[in-house]
C-alpha cells in the first residue's frame, strides 16, 4: 500500500508541477504582454509629450518673433520721432543764428588771447610727430581700418554710389584704403602738416574743420561719414552737433562711424589715452549709443576692436582670470556705427 501511495503522491506532484509550470508560463506571457502594452503606452506618452513640447516651442518661438517684431517696430518708430525732433532743433538753431547775425553785438571783445599762427604751426608739427611715433605706421593703420570696408561698400551701394566724408582724416590712411577700393572719398583735418602729407599721396584732403565740412554739405549727399579718433578731441557739444548734422547730410541707408579709444581696456584708460595732450575726455560706448539713439540712427552697432598683442598669452595662462585678461589686454578701440534708415516706399 505504501508503494502505491507513494506512487500516487509522485503522480500528484507531477501534475501539480505541470500545472504550476503552465501557470508560470501563462503569467510570464501575461507579464510580457503587459510590458509590451506598457512600452507602447510609454511611447505614446513620449510621442504626445514631444508633440506638446514641439507645439510649446513653436508657440514660444512665435511669441518671441512677435515680441521681437514689435520691439524692432517700436525702436524704429522711436528713431523716427528722434529724427523729427532733431530736425526741428537744427532749424531752430538756424533761426537763432540768423537773428544773432542781424543784431548789433554790444558785447566786449573776448579777453582770452587767441593762438598765433606761429604757435599753431608748431602744434601741427608736434601732433604729426606724436602720431608718427606712437599711433603706428601708415601701413599699420591702413590694415586696421580695412575692417570697415564692407560697411562702407554696402552703404555706397544702398545710397546709389554717393561719396564718403572722413572727418579728421590726418595723414590720409583711411582715404588711401577707400581709394584702393575705388570708392569716392574726401577728407578734412585742421592739421596743415598732415593734410600736406595726404595731398602728396594724391588724396582728396583739405584743411578745415568737421563743422565747416558738414555745414557746406548738401542734404542726403553722402553714403558715409567717418571719424577715426576724432571725437575724444572735441567738446561733447561739438560731437553732438556733428552727430545731428550727419543725420541731415547722410543719404537714407548711409552710415555714421565713430572710432575712439576703448577706455574699458585698463591700459588704454590709464596710460595710452593720456599720451595725447589734445584728448579732452574719453567717449564710452554707453554714451555714444545713447547719443546715436537720441539723434535717430537705427540700428546702432557697437564693436570692440584691436585687442592687445598680449591678450592670447594671458588668456592661455593657467589660473589667470579671463575677465581680468580682457580688462587689461582686450579691445583697444571702440567703434559705433549708426544707420540712417532707408525711406519707406
Q: Give Rg in angstroms.
A: 37 Å
Distance between the termini: 115 Å
Strand order in space, largest sheet = 3-2-1-4-5-7-6
Number of H- or I-type helical stretches: 12
As residue ranges, the low-confidence spans are: 104-113
Q: Write down the CATH class of the largest domain.
A: Alpha Beta
Note the beta-strand portion: 5-15%
Biggest sheet details: 7 strands, mixed
Helix content: 55-70%
Mean pLDDT: 83
Q: How many domains is the backbone divided into?
A: 2
What structural class is derived from the secondary structure elements? alpha/beta
CATH topology of the largest domain: Rossmann fold
Instruction: Count every beta strand, where a strand is a DSSP E run of 2 or more residues.
Output: 7
Shape: elongated
Can you identify the CATH superfamily of the largest domain? Vaccinia Virus protein VP39
CATH architectural type of the largest domain: 3-Layer(aba) Sandwich
- Secondary-structure element string: HHHHEHEHEHEHEHHEHHE
Amino acid at each position: 500500500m505504501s508503494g502505491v501511495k507513494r506512487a500516487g503522491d509522485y503522480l500528484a506532484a507531477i501534475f501539480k508541477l505541470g500545472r504550476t509550470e503552465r501557470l508560470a508560463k501563462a503569467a510570464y506571457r501575461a507579464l510580457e504582454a503587459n510590458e509590451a502594452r506598457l512600452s507602447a503606452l510609454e511611447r505614446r506618452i513620449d510621442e504626445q509629450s514631444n508633440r506638446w513640447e514641439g507645439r510649446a516651442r513653436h508657440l514660444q518661438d512665435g511669441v518671441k518673433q512677435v515680441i521681437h517684431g514689435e520691439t524692432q517696430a517700436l525702436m524704429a518708430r522711436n528713431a523716427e520721432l528722434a529724427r523729427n525732433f532733431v530736425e526741428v532743433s537744427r532749424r531752430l538753431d538756424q533761426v537763432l543764428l540768423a537773428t544773432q547775425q542781424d543784431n548789433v553785438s554790444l558785447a566786449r571783445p573776448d579777453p582770452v588771447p587767441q593762438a598765433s599762427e606761429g604757435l599753431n604751426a608748431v602744434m601741427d608739427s608736434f601732433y604729426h610727430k606724436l602720431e608718427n611715433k606712437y599711433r603706428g605706421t601708415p601701413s599699420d593703420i591702413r590694415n586696421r581700418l580695412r575692417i570697415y570696408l564692407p560697411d562702407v561698400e554696402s552703404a555706397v551701394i544702398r545710397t546709389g554710389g554717393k561719396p564718403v566724408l572722413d572727418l579728421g582724416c590726418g595723414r590720409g590712411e583711411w582715404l588711401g584704403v577707400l581709394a584702393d577700393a575705388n570708392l569716392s572719398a574726401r577728407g578734412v583735418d585742421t592739421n596743415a602738416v598732415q593734410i600736406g602729407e595726404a595731398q602728396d599721396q594724391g588724396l582728396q584732403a583739405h584743411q578745415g574743420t568737421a563743422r565747416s565740412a558738414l555745414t557746406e554739405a548738401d542734404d542726403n549727399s553722402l553714403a558715409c561719414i567717418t571719424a577715426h579718433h576724432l571725437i575724444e578731441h572735441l567738446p561733447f557739444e561739438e560731437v553732438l552737433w556733428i552727430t545731428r548734422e550727419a543725420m541731415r547730410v547722410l543719404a537714407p541707408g548711409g552710415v555714421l562711424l565713430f572710432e575712439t579709444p576703448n577706455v574699458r581696456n585698463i591700459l588704454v584708460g590709464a596710460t595710452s589715452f593720456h599720451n595725447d595732450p589734445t584728448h579732452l575726455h574719453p567717449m564710452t560706448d554707453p554714451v555714444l549709443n545713447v547719443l546715436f539713439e537720441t539723434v535717430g540712427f537705427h540700428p546702432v552697432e557697437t564693436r570692440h576692436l584691436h585687442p592687445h598683442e598680449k591678450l592670447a598669452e594671458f588668456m592661455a595662462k593657467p589660473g589667470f582670470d579671463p575677465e581680468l585678461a580682457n580688462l587689461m589686454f582686450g579691445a583697444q578701440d571702440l567703434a559705433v556705427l549708426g544707420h540712417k534708415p532707408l525711406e519707406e516706399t
